[in-house]
């Protein structure tokens, strides 16, 4: 059975040398969407063969980043390093098949070969004199194991994104499989792991395209089915250059700390280099149903913070209140901020309907929620303080009896306010500013009526009376 016709299995295989890069997060997302849309499996492998740079902290950061993005994987997390014996076993099998050979050339000999090639204007691709040597002539010295790469013809990669890519075999070297200390190289480990894990589709960055040509040699020599390849373009910054620190945040964890909802990030990253008609905003279910490799473009995608914020705002607006509260609490925790009290949690849930609209991130939402999070006595900020001059405080004094006698419904509160404005010969706008300042201590808030309904009669009147007290002469 060929790989393409079996159950779809994709994988994400990061190196644990740092945070989950936003480009890696998109690669993981594409693999997740492709597998989930086909009742397949999405596997996770940590490529921790570089022992000097791999750290448990980086592995934990990657797992946390995937968890925040909601990209669940199937089965146990695979450690590439722990499979070193299996990788070496395959190298030995290739030796026995005659598809690989022991190379005793030293680094000095290899460098001398290259210098001579440069001087003669020839290719500096190393050609080992041990490729076809008689085994009986092998010395008792350290050696590497190299793959016998075909020297004629070409390697053809049928890529789902890049199309047909042809690489002449005389441009490929006899790749090292095992180092002189017997440890396997990354290029061998990747192929063995993908085969053993049953990976049918290798979806990864196009910086691995040349690796595919070299890795295919191992598949062919072992008689293994090739996976379907899809090499996706990298993400660039707004200036068209490769995404780097100068463009802003690079790690998925940074986006969580900035307060972007995971659903908005998934939507934006899916749309970054992949399209489904003109659709910009879509749900996870739609993305899973629609995602296909032929929708991925060949050109690098440009990261656009305005588009990200716009999509995040739309996702906040339609999110379930309880789910939104849970994410807000995770955002606070990620930033080392105080957890919400039970009273604040209840208040946020009651008021979420008035906070979600036009908030593009959790900091924006929490700024609007200050009236819920604050407790008496409210300390108005500088802008709000200007709305609480002597005249305005006097208006609050006169307003209080009207509110005390009103039923605490939106209709009744609006009617009571309108009657009061008519009596005072003023417009509601003149009344709204001091009310905002009294209720929230801020000048930008949800509507006065929403705040009063969320806070309730007793708390609302107490806050108004606190500020009105200074207006009594």
TrEMBL record:
It holds the Pfam family Anticodon_2. A motif ('KMSKS' region) lies at residues 242-246. Residues 327-466 form the Aminoacyl-tRNA synthetase class I anticodon-binding domain. It is found in: Cytoplasm. Residues 8-309 form the Glutamyl/glutaminyl-tRNA synthetase class Ib catalytic domain. It comes from the Bacteria. GO terms for cellular component: cytosol. ATP binds at residue 245. It is an enzyme of class 6 (ligase). GO terms for biological process: glutamyl-tRNA aminoacylation. Keywords: Aminoacyl-tRNA synthetase, ATP-binding, Cytoplasm, Ligase, Nucleotide-binding, Protein biosynthesis. A motif ('HIGH' region) lies at residues 14-24. The keyword Cytoplasm applies. One of its GO terms (molecular function) is zinc ion binding. SUPFAM superfamilies: An anticodon-binding domain of class I aminoacyl-tRNA synthetases, Nucleotidylyl transferase. Its EC number is 6.1.1.17. Catalyzes the attachment of glutamate to tRNA(Glu) in a two-step reaction: glutamate is first activated by ATP to form Glu-AMP and then transferred to the acceptor end of tRNA(Glu). Belongs to the class-I aminoacyl-tRNA synthetase family. Glutamate--tRNA ligase type 1 subfamily. Monomer. HAMAP family: Glu_tRNA_synth_type1. PANTHER family: GLUTAMATE--TRNA LIGASE (PTHR43311), GLUTAMATE--TRNA LIGASE, MITOCHONDRIAL-RELATED (PTHR43311:SF2). This is Glutamate--tRNA ligase. It comes from Sagittula stellata (strain ATCC 700073 / DSM 11524 / E-37).
């Amino acid at each position: 059975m060929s790989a393409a016709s079996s159950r779809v299995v994709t994988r994400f295989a990061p190196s644990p040398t740092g945070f989950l890069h936003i480009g890696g997060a998109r690669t993981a997302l594409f693999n997740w969407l492709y597998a989930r849309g086909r009742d397949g499996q999405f596997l996770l492998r940590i490529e921790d063969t570089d022992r000097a740079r791999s750290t448990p902290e980086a592995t934990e950061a990657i797992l946390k980043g995937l968890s925040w993005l909601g990209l669940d994987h199937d089965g146990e997390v695979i450690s590439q390093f722990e499979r070193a014996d299996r990788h070496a076993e395959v190298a030995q099998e290739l030796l026995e098949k005659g598809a690989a050979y022991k190379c005793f050339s030293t680094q000095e000999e290899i460098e001398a070969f290259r210098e001579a090639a440069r001087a003669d204007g020839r290719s500096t691709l190393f050609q080992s004199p041990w490729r076809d040597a008689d085994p009986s002539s092998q010395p008792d010295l350290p050696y590497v194991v190299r793959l016998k790469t075909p020297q004629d013809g070409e390697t053809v990669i049928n890529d789902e994104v890049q199309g047909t890519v042809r690489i002449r075999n005389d441009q490929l070297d006899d790749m090292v499989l095992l180092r002189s200390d017997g440890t396997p190289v990354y290029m061998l480990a990747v192929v063995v792991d993908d085969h053993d894990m049953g990976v049918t589709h290798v979806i990864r960055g196009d910086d691995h395209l040349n690796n595919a040509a070299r890795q295919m040699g191992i598949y062919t020599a072992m008689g293994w089915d090739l996976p379907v390849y899809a090499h996706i373009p990298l993400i660039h910054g707004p200036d068209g250059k490769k995404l780097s620190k100068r463009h802003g945040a690079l790690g998925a964890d940074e986006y969580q700390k900035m307060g972007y909802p995971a659903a908005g990030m998934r939507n934006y990253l899916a749309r970054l280099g992949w399209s489904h008609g003109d659709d910009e905003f879509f749900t996870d279910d739609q993305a899973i149903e629609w995602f296909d490799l032929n929708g991925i473009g060949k050109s690098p995608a440009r990261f656009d913070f305005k588009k990200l914020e716009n999509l995040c705002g739309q996702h906040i607006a339609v999110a379930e209140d309880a789910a939104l509260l849970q994410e807000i609490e995770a955002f606070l925790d990620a930033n080392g901020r105080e957890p919400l009290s039970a009273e604040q949690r209840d208040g946020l849930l009651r008021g979420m309907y008035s906070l979600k609209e036009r908030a593009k991130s959790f900091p924006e939402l929490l700024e609007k929620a200050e009236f819920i999070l604050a407790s008496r006595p409210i300390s108005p900020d500088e802008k709000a303080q200007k709305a609480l001059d002597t005249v305005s405080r006097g208006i609050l004094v006169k307003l209080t009896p009207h509110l005390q006698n009103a039923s605490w419904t939106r209709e009744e509160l609006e009617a009571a306010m309108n009657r009061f404005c008519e009596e005072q010969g003023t417009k509601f706008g003149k009344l709204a500013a001091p009310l905002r300042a009294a209720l929230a201590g801020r000048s930008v808030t949800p509507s006065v009526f929403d705040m009063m309904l969320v806070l309730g009669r007793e708390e609302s009147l107490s806050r108004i009376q606190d500020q009105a007290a200074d207006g009594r002469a």
